[in-house]
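hey team, just a heads up i'm posting the complex here instead of the shared drive bc the drive is being weird again. everything in one block, sequence lines first with there labels, then the predicted structure for the whole assembly after. its two chains so it's a bit long, scroll down
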Amino acid sequence: MAFGTGGRRRGKKSKVHFTKLCNFACCRSSLNDEHSQIGQSGFSRNVHCNDPDNLEQLQLRYRDNYVSTTKYTALNFIPKSLFEQFRRVANIYFLVVACVSFSPLAPFGATSILFPLLVVIGATMAKEGVEDWRRRKQDIEANNRKVQVYGRNQTFEETRWKNLRVGDLVKVYKDEYFPADLFLVSSSYEDGICYVETSNLDGETNLKVKHALDVTASIHDESSFQNFKAVIKCEDPNDDLYAFVGTLCHGRQYPLSVQQILLRDSKLQNTDYIYGVVIFTGHDTKVMQNTTDPPSKRSKIERKMDKIIYILFSTLIMMSSVGSVFFGIETKNDIHDGKLTRWYLGPGNATVFYDPRRASLAAFFHFLTDLMLYQYLIPISLYVSIEVVKVLQTIFINQDQDMYFEETDKPARARTSNLNEELGQVDTILSDKTGTLTCNSMEFVKCSIAGIAYGRGLTEVERALAKKKGGGPPEVGDTSFDAEGSNAELVDTGRSIKGFNFQDERIMNGQWVKQTHSNVIQKFFRVLALCHTAIPDVNQDTGEISYEAESPDEAAFVIAARELGFEFYERTQTSISLHELDRESGKSVDRSYKLLHVLEFSSARKRMSVIVRNPENQLLLLCKGADSEEEFMSWEEEFLKAQTSVTADRDALVDAVADKIERDLILLGATAVEDKLQKGVPECIEKLANAGIRIWVLTGDKMETAINIGYACSLLRQGMKQIVITLDSPAVNDLENKGNKEAIAKASISSITKQIKEGLSELSSAKESSVSFALIIDGKSLAFALDENLENSFLELAMKCASVICCRSTPKQKALVTRLVKKGKNRTTLAIGDGANDVGMLQEADIGVGISGVEGMQAVMSSDFAIAQFRFLERLLLVHGHWCYRRISMMICYFFYKNITFGFTLFWFEAYASFSGKPAYNDWYMSLYNVFFTSLPVIALGVFDQDVSARFCLKYPLLYQEGVQNILFSWQHILGWMFNGFMCSMIIFFLATNCIKEQSFRKDGKVVDYEILGVLMYTSVVWTVNCQMALSINYFTWIQHFFIWGSITLWYLFLVIYGTISPILSTTAYRVLVETCAPSPFYWMASLLIVVSALLPYFSYKAIQIRFHPMFHEIIQRRRLEGLET
Amino acid sequence: MNSNNTPSSSAGGPGSAAADSTAPPTTRNSKRPKYSRFTQQELPACKPILTPKWVISAFMLVTVIFIPIGVASLFASHDVVEIIDRYETDCIPEDSRKDKIAYIQSSGDKTCNRILNVTKHMKHPIYVYYQLDNYYQNHRRYVKSRSDQQLRDRDSENDTSACKPEDKTANGSTIVPCGLIAWSLFNDSYSFSRNNQNLSVNKHGISWKSDRDHKFGKDVFPKNFQSGGLIGGKHLNESIPLSEQEDLIVWMRTAALPTFRKLYGKIEVDLVAGDVINVTLQNNYNTYSFNGKKKLVLSTTSWLGGKNDFLGIAYLTVGGLCFFLAMVFTIIYLVKPRRLGDPSYLSWNRNPGGH
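-- predicted structure starts here --
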């Protein structure tokens, strides 16, 4: 899209010359196509340039330029955030409970129910608030930036961004951001071009050229703006960054394209200043229309957790039903044969809640009461605790020094905190190749000119292949090879040039002139030096030239040409200049080529061309070298028409016309560039494979390349059996030549079905042996294999293979494959990629990991985690993933355990209080249970626990299978914990009640009453659940000690403090510890007995389990302890 | 067209744009995470694991602590001498036993004489309890039916909303103390004699001091109590403030479980083995409607309180169990000393993809 309307005169950097022709074409096109839609729906925007106070403009009431990215405003914060919170079932339940708690149905005081809810809701709201405040601060900063606006008194005045209005004329200086979407009027260059950097929009750091319309480009003078009045009619705000439809009415109508549009948040560079008219403001700007929330995915564990919550709800309802039935029966019996039985309850004149004569109604009301009473089964603080924990976990991920990449100054970044634990369960990794496994920095390695191959450098793949053939499989962790290899090269050449790894004495250092085909060689390198869109950047001090290119291979070519004596040093809008080595004289001469046209690279054509006129006045189309003078004019016209047609299928048109001229070319030669593998990729892949993770590489390469890369990066290993599915068979090719589509499809399907079957049978026959398989499939076959009929058998085959390589796959296929794996086997998939073509895959996968590399930010923006290098994936999964999975699953299990323990003690007590709904404990003990006495240790568990250190996680990758097989969060495990909780509650209640019976518990003859039983039981519960925590964690730092023992201490402290305040408030807790319990040895002895007994079953189970069925991490722990590991 | 005031680019990037893109080149701060043991998750930690040594030691530790405690508690429990006399049926004349409820609700004299034989020396103080059974003092309706404000503070006399239906008399005057608990105050009474010599029962200090001092007011006097149509239980002397009505205070401290004892008083002399105690009791309280038992209990205490072997037995059981487990584990480890760190475990390979 570099083409556009240009200036007449040579600017410092101008590009295209056919101004008149183009304008002519533009005007013509303005009469038809999309421009005819202007004024209709979708294209109704009117902008009165330089006239924001125009009445018509004011009537349109376009938005101002104030931008708010906050989720809430001061006004709606409370209702909106509350609404968000109560979208969770559990929270609604608690809200209903809180509301009902004001009625006489409540088993305890309303405040004690409200308090924990308020704490939990408050904590979540505070978190939301803080996050929003940060966004707000950014907004304020952006809204208050200054910009120069052309004011009434015909000068430019400074104003704030937020005060900009549609139609304002602004002046933006170099290195400033554009405050809104602007129409480029003119720039400091006379021909009205300017350079912008759009890294904030799409992450691309290369400069893009924008062109002003000829008709406006000459307006430079501040005074001349006074007379500049025009109306722009254009499309309504939308999110397409790469298209714009509009017309400028300035005397006559001129079509506008995206070439004249400067987008908000992109930056002016290499241009002193520009003038522009505000078209879209604030939230109408393209960048704001593009802002989407980060992807919201939920982890499997959380989805399972919801199920558990439902189970608990069912339990709750069951318990309440049991309670209400018994209550109903007992209440009914309170009047027996017309006589009051339990007369002391006053059944004769009871309210409806206790009326024996309406026992069923009383039972129904009691059901509601019980729903409130047993609410402790549902851990109210679970969600907020998990959120807090996950945020802290992401901090650890972001702060990990081992995932920081020095070269690009990029740490790892968790863009969402939802998926931390999912990282520990990845079953299949789907990886892009270019830029993900490789550096995406191309090196010019070889070339073939006139049939002779040049270049003696060894490619990495060749090296890897040689290594495979030469020796056995490489040792794990052997990184020395690569380092040595590259070092050796450095010594050879004496200097290293990025992007250039070419050695051949035949043509280097000017020797090419002695070659027989030197004229072809000359042409060849001229093509490399001319046919590109790179911009040279001359370092003023050293005279060295570096290039800014759109793609790394382009840069590699230009660099190669430079190294071989064709140094591209200047580009203007109309010419390209080279320092060339002259063939005859052997001296360096400057040659300037007139640049007529650039046919930019498009993936459909897979080529680019330039049309230049050389100093000898020959017209050259350099694509791969061909000169064709005829037809040029007529073709060009056609091309311009296509270019300026401004319709949706414009790109297709341009491609078609470009195709027309790129014909009858003469082949000069071929080049070979190598994309180097990223550091540590083979080792990382090997580790991940050892962890039992399947790795699929989805690449656009052809099969041979893909297989070679597979070897280079350890995806294919020695002794692995390859199953190849391809449609590249003679039979199919024959059919293809005939062109009968149906027959091709039919033959293809049957061929693939057969190949898949063969593969499956091969697999099943090799079941016994330990051979592992690799599947390689090409894109065409993949298209058929993804067909509904074949999908399942293909998946079955693929899932049995350790590695899968899909060659020649399109972005859409990538996403489809991802979905297939995710849906088909319900496995956790992780997609990793770096480019825009991976976005679909990243969003489709359970986890999307973006590589923040050279290809821009688009992949990162749609990812859940961003890392700088593929090798960090190893640490992200094996260490952070494993830990987070462990932590979260243990945390959730423990949460259920502690709440079941507590909740069931209430239930048992009910059974002894004729299910009347009297809780065993004081109101405030209960409401603080989840908030104070048990919450902090479990958060510490979720944040800090480590089964084994990071080093061992990496040393024993198989440990990762604990997550993949979901051992720690299997139903067995969860129910085990629940059962443990159930048992603890029984032990606590029945031991406590049997210990105290009716006898006195002190020397002074006092007996145990309701208050004391409550304190004893509660003490036991607090001790038990906290000690249980101490038993089940693997990692005791001072933080754990502090929280666990602190929680227990806090309970006693609370009792003392709560017990000293007025008995009206403390009711049954008044001086209960100081006066009644603490002086009694019985209280302490009973606590000790109960706590030890409650912990005994788990402890014994654990001891037996470790002895007979140790889990993998326990073996490693043991080895560490025994000193077997150093 | 001078641009002498070229503003420098604002640092920090365009905040409103896609959140975290590259910083402008003007800022040269490295984003390298700072090292701290905390952020790198390398805090010094102790990493306990259950090795055989630890398992056996833990079990043995429990054994060593629990067995002596168990023995001590059992001894303490055995030191306590307890006399229990169940009287609810025996105190109803034979001819009235068919309809006990009618008897108890009748207004006649319900005096009943019981004889207690002291079999073991009982050191003073000897605590006198009454024990009720199948009596739900922990019923929600019952527990809530009281007014703490009213009991404590004379000015809150009318704060009786929680006390229904025992909040006001038929003519609307406030009942003090109100509520079902107070209304159902236990009203059997006991007097003891030994060899025709009266044994005085000390009824002071049977309630918690904090209750007397802070929950029951010194200036709150009973009012309109038990004056309604239906008499629940004991009457109160309207000239004594609530803080000194210890029977009431004891009763108001509701029991946790349906079977409970409450302190009636203390006998401040020793009883010797062979002593015969005559009890004259007024059998007024209606437990017959709900088939509740009534017992009179005389008991001494040890440092651990009253008689209950359960605590000691439980301690011994748990201690014994732990000893047993320690032995079992010792045997397991001795007989099959398979080292946990055995590398053969590491071949654990459930790897589906195969390697």
